[in-house]
Write a structure and sequence with these properties.
globular, single chain, mainly alpha
Length: 131
């Protein structure tokens, strides 16, 4: 089962990193299309507000899921040393994900987004501890 969780974790990391590192125009288009779809269902808020919310909530959600998947993988391995090392690397990636965006046209570094990444990580760790 550990191979399943490891493969799923790697796949999720690849997908979230790809989406996170789209150029500014692509990422804006992707989130705007989703915001329009949500607006059709829940029209109480403007598409602009929904888009802004989705763009920030995405940080929390993708890091929450990554943390849960990584914890499932590490639980299957059973090594406390690996758990500490990989958890530390994930915390560093919460910051590095934003740093690497400075190399992508139309993207920028944001401390707020680092904080949202860390919030997703902390929620994932809390959920993993409870489950």
């Amino acid at each position: 089962m550990v191979y399943f969780w490891a493969a799923t974790t790697i796949f999720w990391f690849a997908v979230m990193t790809y989406l996170s590192h789209q150029n500014g125009e692509e990422t804006s288009r992707t989130s705007w299309i989703l915001a329009e779809d949500v607006h059709r269902i829940w029209a109480r808020e403007s598409t602009e507000k929904i888009n802004a919310f989705l763009r920030k909530a995405a940080h929390i959600v993708v890091f929450f899921i990554l943390t849960i998947l990584l914890e499932k993988t590490l639980a299957g391995i059973g090594s406390d040393t690996l758990r500490v090392v990989w958890t530390g690397l994930l915390v560093v990636w919460c910051w590095m994900d934003e740093v690497t965006k400075t190399f992508v046209p139309g993207r920028h570094f944001s401390w707020l987004d680092v904080g949202l990444n860390l919030l997703g990580f902390l929620l994932g760790m809390g959920t993993s501890c409870i489950a």
